[in-house]
């Protein structure tokens, strides 16, 4: 059975739009007890894998996850207010105890004559699955690009001591299109390896349209969508 990948992911193992991404990563996902979500959740079940060395990685990362989870919840409270609802609109059964994922990603040095296109991408263009994503990137390497509404790629220059926040697909559905997902890609054309810590804050398991008026998007059951995405990203391997 194909399992959403926990632990080390080798170069080319992650796949975006049927292309292998030239990066390696360590993935940590919400631990899920066997049977918690029935058959649908089987591919997500399990605990994270920790190496013997460095021996404090588990403690350090679990602490980091708890801090960024808290920060993401605060951002979601701000978004709930901005949408005209109560600050806790996304909490409790909606995204109070979210599904989360943390990826520590390492992008190799590229040869200098590579063009900046999706084909040379180390992470092909995509949107993230969930609500918000917090990217903590190397301060001195510009590799992440976001696409504006005219389709132009803009470099998301790192700003020291800050996170870059991407909007995910589910927030588009929840806000009925008021928040649009950020199309982004990574191309490291610097002469240094580039590292990022990427935290995904996602719904618990269901989806409701939050705005009034006519719903622009079909109803989505988040778990089903996540499992479908997992098959498309790792299913060929
Ligand atoms: O490394 C980055 O800056 C972004 C990675 C990313 O987009 C992802 O893992 O979904
Ligand atoms: Fe992403």
Automatic annotation (TrEMBL):
Q: Which GO terms describe its molecular function?
A: metal ion binding; oxidoreductase activity
Q: Metal-binding: present as a keyword of the record?
A: yes
Q: Which UniProt keywords apply?
A: Iron, Metal-binding, Oxidoreductase
Query: Which domain of life, per UniProt?
Result: Eukaryota
Q: Where is the Fe2OG dioxygenase domain?
A: 97-203
Keyword Repeat listed: no
Q: Which family does it belong to?
A: Belongs to the iron/ascorbate-dependent oxidoreductase family.
- Name listed for the protein in its UniProt record: Fe2OG dioxygenase domain-containing protein
Q: Which organism is it from?
A: Zea mays (Maize)
């Amino acid at each position: 059975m194909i399992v959403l990948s926990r632990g080390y992911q080798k170069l080319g193992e992650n796949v975006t739009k049927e292309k292998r991404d030239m990066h390696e990563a360590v993935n940590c996902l919400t631990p899920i007890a066997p049977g918690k979500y029935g058959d649908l959740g089987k591919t997500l079940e399990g605990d994270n894998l920790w190496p013997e060395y460095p021996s404090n990685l588990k403690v350090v990362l679990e602490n980091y996850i708890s801090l960024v989870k808290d920060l993401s919840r605060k951002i979601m409270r701000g978004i709930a207010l901005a949408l005209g609802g109560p600050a806790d609109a996304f909490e409790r059964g909606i995204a109070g105890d979210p599904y989360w994922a943390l990826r520590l990603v390492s992008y190799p040095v590229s040869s200098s004559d590579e063009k900046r296109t999706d084909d040379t991408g180390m992470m092909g263009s995509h949107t993230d699955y969930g609500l918000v994503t917090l990217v903590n990137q190397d301060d001195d390497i510009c590799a992440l690009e976001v696409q504006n509404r005219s389709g132009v790629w803009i470099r998301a220059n790192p700003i020291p001591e800050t996170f870059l926040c991407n909007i995910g697909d589910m927030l588009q559905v929840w806000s009925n299109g008021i928040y649009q997902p950020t199309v982004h890609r990574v191309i490291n054309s610097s002469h240094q390896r580039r590292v990022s810590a990427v935290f995904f804050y996602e719904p618990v398991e269901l989806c409701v349209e939050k705005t009034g008026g006519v719903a622009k998007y079909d109803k989505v059951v988040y778990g089903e969508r996540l499992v479908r995405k997992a098959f498309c990203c790792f299913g060929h391997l």
